[in-house]
Amino acid sequence: MAVGQMGVLGIASNLSWDTLNQLKDNEIKNQVNPITKKIEANMEKQTELTSLLTMMTSLNTNFKNLSDFSTYLKRSASVEGNGVKATAGEGLAIQDIKINVKQLAQNDVNQVGLKFASRDSVFSSENTTLSFYHNGTNYDIEIKAGMSVSEVGQAITDKTNGAVMGIIMKTGGDEPYQLMIQGKDSGAQNKIYFGSTLESAAMPGGQLTGGTFEIEIGGQTINIDLANDVETKIGNTAENNAKALLKAINEKIENDPSLTDIKDKLKSGEITIGLNSTGKGLLFNDSKGGEINVNITDAKVKVVEGGSEVDTDLGFVKTSVGASSTDLITSSAVSSSALSGIITINGEKIDLSGINNGSGAGNAQAVADKINATANLNGKVSAEVKNGKLVINSLDGNSVRIGAEGANSEEQTKVLNSVGLQMGSYATSQGFLEKMDITNIQKAQNAQFTYNGIEIERDKNSVDDVVSGLSLELTAITEANKEVVVRISRDDSGIAEEMEKFVENYNTMYNKIQELMRYDEDTEVAGVFNGNSDIRQIIRQFNSIITSNDINGDNLVKFGIYFNDDGTLKMDKEKFNSAFKEDPDKAVAFFRSTTSVSRGVSTEVDGVFTKLRNTMDKLITGSNSTLKLLETSLVDEQKTLNEDKTKTQESIDSRYETMASRWSAYDQLIAKTQQQSLAVQNMINSLNSSN
């Protein structure tokens, strides 16, 4: 760095700055530049050490894998036959497994018989409700007059959070679009039950000692004597008693000639009698939406021997569902003012004039009375008041049409609003269910198969919980009297591949170390770590282990691992595979570890790759490992060199700035002296001239 920009210090002195700059440059060359070269050499060492550490880390991964027991526990699964796919996990016992698939799990798929010209076609011109039960929950899908097919499908999906999906399919024909209602998940518990569904909670455990159970379904009644028809005992669980009661009901249906109609409906699927989704209670379904009623009389249960009998409802908190259990039309608030105008129900006029009872509930009751008093609605429509609101139901299962008289639609709406009603046709859930003509085209069911002769049932075709480590995918039903054989065997292909990676990564590291340690006598060029004993010892430590024999006299040469003349490794894969297959357990002991027993004391003897891993860990793992300490020392050295360089440069700069200031002062002094001398000379010259 030059200490001045001018060529001379002063006009009078003719002193040059070059002298200072030359002196300063010489000091920088002798004091700063050597430090810079040391910093550059240090940075090169750090870069090369980082590269070496990366290579050694990759090699250590091979050491760890080849010393890890899990590497030798890999398994493969082959399948003889059709209908099953298998995947074997680590450590699964080597064996043959016989599987016979009797039934695949599948989801419930139902087709609505109504057909439409497009997805946007009107699904229904009536207001109604689609009711169904799925996996423990009853759903009521509100269908408003004028909704499109797509909107109804989406309403089903949204209401169930996707558990049941409304899907529009193009099946063909002049009206090609149909609504499919299907479950998302497979399994018998995911069946969709349309119509009326009555489900109990968990039944009590213990012995049923008395009382009767009566179920009305499908228009017939089944009577069960709980003490004599149901086989229960002390110690029974809820599951036991639910199965026992179901068995008694089925036996009654099978043996009672008067129940033939129910038997036929059970076979057709119109009626379902079974266990609920938990298996601890019962479920009854009438797919046509008919009434289901349960009546339990004097039911008793004894839980423990010697205990007293207690009353029980068998888990039936709710005892009735069906056509009469859900109201068809419920009004909004009825006006408390005087009513006027005429509403129509199924075309029959109901005159509201004169109704003025001072409250909404009072007016609603008066309207209900007028409806019930209309002769032509008798036996067809009923009206009542619930919670102050007008409720209208169909008695014959047909639709109920609500309207009003008036000069225009505005006047008609005003009349209906006064009693909280809306114009339109309202179809009963049961009646509309018949119009929908729903057909089950795929039954929800569990997968059923045998595993070495043991009966297994699951709700999915992907099964991974029969035995730990084995995953099965059931794809087809097995032919009768034939079994699929799943063979579990060793999978040692990964071991040979890992050994190849070890050889490759060792050679990469070896060549790098040779580069770092080299010295060319002709060119006198040396590697950055030439002469470093820590780096030089790496190859020696590894080679002593690689060439060693274990207690049985085995070494890596036996497994096809050799040294080339240049110090790198090579692998004969064919020899490796042959030696490993000859005695896998002995090979694993050599690679990983074995147990030596001397005088009754067991000692774990490290295998070759365990030794290599431990040696590598001492070199690169942890802050106190050999190369990490070297890395730290280089970082510290760099810091010290940077500080020395900065201090040296600052010292030189400061010293020469001081010298420059002094020279500048000298220049000013010389200039002043020259000026004074010139003034005296001028005076002398002036005196001489005057004489």
Automatic annotation (TrEMBL):
- Which Pfam family, an example, fits this chain? FliD_C
Where the record annotates domain Flagellar hook-associated protein 2 N-terminal, the positions are: 19-108
Flagellar hook-associated protein 2 C-terminal domain residues are: 444-675
Q: Which GO terms describe its cellular component?
A: bacterial-type flagellum filament cap; bacterial-type flagellum hook; extracellular region
Where is it predominantly found? Answer: secreted
Q: Which GO terms describe its biological process?
A: bacterial-type flagellum-dependent cell motility; cell adhesion
Q: Partners and quaternary state?
A: Homopentamer.
Q: What does this protein do?
A: Required for morphogenesis and for the elongation of the flagellar filament by facilitating polymerization of the flagellin monomers at the tip of growing filament. Forms a capping structure, which prevents flagellin subunits (transported through the central channel of the flagellum) from leaking out without polymerization at the distal end.
- Protein name listed in UniProt: Flagellar hook-associated protein 2
